[in-house]
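I had to read the description of the data format several times before I understood it. In essence, backbone conformation is discretised, so a fold becomes a row of integers matching the chain in length. I therefore recommend that a typical entry be quoted early in the introduction. For illustration, here is how one protein appears when written out as sequence plus structure tokens.

***
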Amino acid sequence: MQVEIDAEAATFGDIIQGDYEHNYQNLTLRQMFMYNWLVGHCDLVGSPMPSWILKADDDFYINVPLALRIAAANPQGGIM
């Protein structure tokens, strides 16, 4: 499976992967990895911080129309 993940990342640049076991006990570690990546790649390389961050996992269902309505109603931004 790692070969397919690497191919996806190389093709589209849309995967961020940390080096830790994916389990509930590492939930805080996963959250901190995401925040550290965000700050390191959006704030320090001349790109503006995004107004909104959507953190999802492989077992999430995202109601995109609802997420867009929430974002439009709260232009100050935030984390979903």
Q: What stands out?
A: The two ends are 28 Å apart (CA to CA). Residues 20 and 29 are 8 Å apart (CA to CA).
